[in-house]
Amino acid sequence: MNVINARLRGRPGLFRIELNGAAIAAIVPQPDVVAPGAADDLDAAQNLVVPPFVEPHIHLDATLTAGEPEWNMSGTLFEGIERWAQRKETTTHDDIKARAKKTIDMLVDHGIQHVRTHVDVTEPGLVALKAMVEVREDVRHLVDLQIVAFPQEGIESYPNGRALMTEAIAIGADVVGGIPHFENTREQGVASLKFLMDLAERSGCLVDVHCDETDDPQSRFLEVLAEEARVRQMGPRVTASHTVAMGSYDNAYCSKLFRLLKRSGINFVSCPTESIHLQGRFDNYPKRRGVTRVAEIDRAGMNVCFGQDSIVDPWYPLGNGNILRILEAGLHICHMLGYEDLQRCLDLITENSARTLNLGERYGIEVGRPANLLLLSAPDDYEMVRSQGHALVSIRHGEVLMRRTPAQVHRRG
Ligand code: 17E
Ligand code: FE2
What is the average pLDDT across 250-262? Predict the structure, then answer.
């Protein structure tokens, strides 16, 4: 199959992309627009062709459960955790698999082919984790799925928390998680980070910690995570998710912190729609935004990307799988609608996220890499966001996986 009349990010002109089964065989500059020839030529119509969108942070064990058995009425993270603890009592293997697969279909419909899911392992039977390990195999034709062993109710503060984390990795989780700001004490938070970094180092797993997901400016576990990553030289394999307390740190502390963050080389994920909804809940006015310093992290040359976090779960009632919606909201919330930011904003849901997931040569429009790519509805990043564009075709392993027909408008006069 060939894709013709394709525009590529960061390269002038038009291209023909030749796909040879599962790999990209050639990327050939086109002097002019050409008419489709062979039956399997896909015409990008001078719009962007990009590698698939990435969902770097979602909780597939919890999606599509909002209101079961009760709604989160306060809108706080902590009530979300309580509501989820109630729902967790009734989860079954089949229930987890069915909801995860339904959600993955929603992601696929919006051009996502790489997903990192957190899965709650603070449950003695590890039912959700075992189900998700099966889902990872069942959906290989749709997405590459990374599973994080996520201790929702703490490692140190939950009965047998350390043993459950260790078992989850033995069963097949790809990534070690954590939640230091939820542990009972600061000391437990620090101990949980040392434990999980040891576990990752021993097992060769990646790390992705829910870190400082609170407006409390005293929540300073990010510095501990970054220092652990720096000393062990694991930075590029480590991700700090949320870090919303950074939005409440004063600038004097943050300037010192950034020095360490840069030296550590860790990655950052922000979930801007989730955080604008869950945070700021203990403020009156003026009210904090409750998101991390995405623009500043980016401008300091560090790696940061956007994730959805939730789709219709105890923490967030909306969501439809469309990561472009998160990008648009995030650019607003993070003061990133400046010209320069708009020129390269798709990085936040493609290249930067792929780096967070350590996808390496399994990702990108380059000869020899997997034949996974998207035909978009606009010619550049700015226009893609402005027009609220879509992924029109998603190609995986050299075959069309999803095709979207945009709504047609008929106007009189
Ligand atoms: N659990 C958590 O600790 N934080 C979140 N944002 C979600 C689940 C969705
Ligand atoms: Fe999360």
Answer: 98
Spatial separation of the C-alpha atoms in residues 49 and 8, rounded to whole Å: 6
Gap from CA of 210 to ligand 2 centroid (Å): 6
Tokens of 326: 């998160």
Find the ligand nearest to 290 CA.
Answer: 1
> Which atom of ligand 1 is least distant from the CA of 242?
6
Residues 32, 151, single domain; the answer is no
Report if residue 131 sits inside a domain: yes
Q: 64 and 102 in contact (C-beta within 8 Å)? A: yes
**Residue 38: partners with Cβ closer than 8 Å, 6 or more residues away:** 2
Decide: 277 in ligand 1 pocket, CB within 6 A: no
Nearest CA to ligand 1 atom 4: 77
Question: What are the CA-CA distances from residue 299 to residues 255, 286, 295, 308, 341 (Å)?
Answer: 13, 27, 6, 22, 10
Cβ(213) – ligand 1 distance below 6 Å: yes
The 2-8 sheet, strands edge to edge: 23-30, 11-20, 2-8, 41-43
Kindly state whether residues 346 and 371 are assigned to the same domain. Answer: no
pTM: 0.98
Residues 131 and 34 in one domain: no
CATH of the domain at 37: 2.30.40.10
Average pLDDT over residues 17-40: 94
Per-residue pLDDT tens for 33-75?
999 988 789 999 999 999 999 999 999 999 999 999 999 999 9
Cβ 330 vs Cβ 348: under 8 Å: yes
Q: Which atom of ligand 1 is nearest to the CA of 182?
A: 3
User: Comparing C-alpha atoms, which of 141, 137, 130, 140 is closest to residue 149?
Assistant: 130
- Pair 74, 99 in one domain: yes
Q: Judge whether 14 and 46 are in contact, CB under 8 Å.
A: yes
Q: Domain span at residue 180? A: 53-362
Residue 77 near ligand 1, beta carbon < 6 Å = yes
Number of structural domains found in the chain: 2
